[in-house]
Amino acid sequence: MFEILSSYWPHIVFVLSVVMGATAAVHVAMTKEEVRSAVGWVGVILLSPIIGALLYLIAGINRIRRSVVYNRRMLRQGGALAHLDLYDAEDPMVASHFGRRFLAMKTLGDRVTRHQLMSGNDIQLLDGGDAAYEAMLHAIRFARRSIILETYIFDRDRIGKRFAEVLADAVKRGVAVRVLIDAVGARYSVPSVLGLLRDGGCEVAVFNGNVIMGLRLPYANLRTHRKIMVVDGAIAFTGGMNIREGFSQECAGADCAIDTHFRITGAVVADLFSIAAEDWHYSSGEILEGDAWEIEPPGERPGMPKLIRAVASGPDRSVETNHKMLMGAFSIARSSIRIVSPYFLPDRELISALATAARRGVKVDIVVPAANNLTLVDRAMTAQFDQVLKGDCRIWRASGPFNHSKLMVIDGRWAYVGSSNLDPRSLRLNFEVDLEVFDLAFAEELETRIDRTIKFAKPVSLEQLRARPFPVRLFERVLWLGSPYL
Predict the structure, then answer these.
(1) Where are the alpha helices (DSSP H) in 225-368?
(2) Residues 6 or more apart whose Cβ sits within 8 Å of residue 284
(3) CA 410, CA 191: separation in Å to the nearest integer?
(4) Where would you find the membrane-spanning parts of this chain (predicted)?
(5) Rounded to whole angstroms, how far apart are CA atoms 400 and 447?
(6) pLDDT in tens, 377-431
(7) What is the pairing mode between strands 336-340 and 407-410?
(8) Strands 407-410 and 414-418, how do they pair?
(9) What is Dmax (Cα atoms) for the chain?
(10) For residue 316, is it within any domain?
């Protein structure tokens, strides 16, 4: 065998190159929807068919195909959630309270998302880690039947251990507990929190755990960035908050990072549960059913006050859903677009939509941190600022601690909050969950928060960007080229 290999290895390598390169190139041509991405991958594969094909297998296949197990419409067939039909927001309700252009946003959401715009909800803003963690821990302590928690990062630090302790106490009370952590996020702390949770009796799974030698190798670059916790089918928490002490002033001091989370009750809780439960089934194989996982009837009556839709995005049948929602929102704006994002690397379509809105007279304000926790990402997005500023948009560098919040308000009426950043990873590679909120009071609360941030922020100008040394600008542009995978 060794003699055959030593004699014919050039022929073997040639055959492997042809087979692997051709297979990968055909897959690129048949599956990629963006021509620039397709051309880039085909170029890499042609330059090095074997290595290029392997790189494409690991980082280029960005679509997971999984069966639909949880969907509120499907669950209603059994009659348990049939009453939620009464909470579907009707077109006349949206048009009368928010105008016909926001009715267009409802129509868009109805067509591109998997969930309905629901009435009869309440949403509470939790400002900072201490407020968010205390509210979540309180809900866990008083859980009676079930808890499902999905998160990107769950550190084994003081905050993580506090969560592990109250979750273990809930298990001892007979509460069904399921914890899903992303395989990459679970490794942010060493040792990971997985063993501690399992020792406490929690059922734990990792999302895309076998990313090197397992069968999910093609999906190694795809992560769940969602943050969802649903307690007793009645209370949900979602937003941008990971579980780690760096966001707690109690643990990290006055320089702790800033973030925003939300406590939700009402009909939309059923949709948040279905999203987390589907991810749990994908990772563990378990279908969450039975009395413990029943959804509680909403406390609010159908109708106003707050209309909320759960928007699930990800590299499956919900690919680029958040991108489509953002494009729609920018197109209907008349007076203002307010954005807070820690990582701002929009594609050309979003930049064009923002620039077009600004040139129509819409005031476009984008707030990013002055100090970022990901230096390479910050450098890459700085390289793209000139494209945004040329479009008559304004960019602000917020002083103070790093702000991890993801907030958006359109015309003081429509809000979009959740886990999605405005970068290629969130818009195309990650599994994300956001909330589309129609409510004047909630939008005003977010705008007040954004105004407070801008008050202590510094504007970014084209003159400042161009005045920096050429090597610095070149380095940033090189990083920008690799921004989809930062």
Answers:
(1) 249-252, 269-284, 321-332, 348-359
(2) 178, 180, 203, 205
(3) 43
(4) 12-31, 38-59
(5) 19
(6) 999 999 999 999 999 999 999 998 999 999 999 999 999 999 999 998 999 889 9
(7) antiparallel
(8) antiparallel
(9) 81
(10) no
Task: Give kind and range of the element (H or E) at residue 119.
Answer: strand 118-127
Specify whether 380 is located in the same domain as 270: no
**Residue 38 shares a structural domain with residue 128:** no
Q: Tell whether 20 and 90 lie within a shared domain.
A: no
Could you tell me the two tokens for 415? 């809000």
My answer on whether 136 and 166 are in the same domain is: yes
Which has the closest alpha carbon to 298: 264, 325, 331? 264
Integer Cα distance of 237 and 272 in angstroms: 9
Instruction: With beta carbons less than 8 A apart as the criterion, state whether 239 and 259 touch.
Output: yes
Q: What is the pTM of this model?
A: 0.89
Same domain, 352 and 479: yes
Count, in order, helices (H) and strands (E) of the chain.
18, 15
Full domain range(s) for residue 273: 72-95+117-308
The verdict on 186 and 304 lying in the same domain is yes
Could you read off the pLDDT of 117-128 as tens digits, one per residue? Answer: 999 999 999 999
Shared-domain flag, residues 52 and 127 = no
Give the number of domains in the chain.
Answer: 3
